[in-house]
Amino acid sequence: MSVTVYSKPACVQCTATYRALDRLGVEYEIIDISEDADALDRVRGMGYMQVPVVVAGEHHWAGFRPDMISALS
């Protein structure tokens, strides 16, 4: 399953998400929405107005969600 984290610089919840994914050994791609207008549109199209937005297969959520992250392992 591919995991994508939509993020922006200086985002505390994003950093916490990266650390939790790293601890579990989950590989992920980071996309900076401050540099990628298409990614920002994609996140808004999913109904989110905050980062991080994590897309894991068919599931997605916003914010630091340890419960959702642990379900990926």
Question: Which features would summarize this protein structure in a list?
Answer:
alpha+beta; four-stranded mixed sheet; 3 helices; 73 residues
Structural class per helix/strand content? alpha+beta
Distance between the termini: 11 Å
Helix content: 25-40%
SSE string: EHEHEEH
Secondary structure tally: strands: 4
Determine the mean pLDDT. 96
Number of helices: 3
Bin the strand percentage: 15-25%
Shape annotation? globular
**Unreliable segments (pLDDT under 50, ≥5 consecutive)?**
none
Q: Rg to the nearest angstrom?
A: 11 Å
Q: Tell me the major beta sheet.
A: 4 strands, mixed
Organism: Rhizobium mesosinicum
Function: Electron transport system for the ribonucleotide reductase system NrdEF.
Pfam families: Glutaredoxin
Family: Belongs to the glutaredoxin family.
Descriptive account of the structure:
This protein is an alpha+beta fold and 73 residues long. 37% of the residues lie in helices and 23% in strands. It has 3 helices and 4 strands; from the N terminus they run βαβαββα. It has helices at residues 12-24, 37-45, 66-70; strands at 3-7, 29-32, 53-56, 59-62. Strands 2-1-3-4 form a 4-stranded mixed sheet, sandwiched between helices. α1 (12-24) links the parallel β1 and β2. It is globular, with a radius of gyration of 11 Å. The protein starts with a strand and ends with a helix. The mean pLDDT is 96.
Concise overview:
Residues 3-61 form the Glutaredoxin domain. The chain has 73 residues and is an alpha+beta fold. It has 3 helices and 4 strands.
Layout of secondary structure:
Layout: E1 3-7, H1 12-24, E2 29-32, H2 37-45, E3 53-56, E4 59-62, H3 66-70
Parallel strand pairs: 1-2
Antiparallel strand pairs: 1-3, 3-4
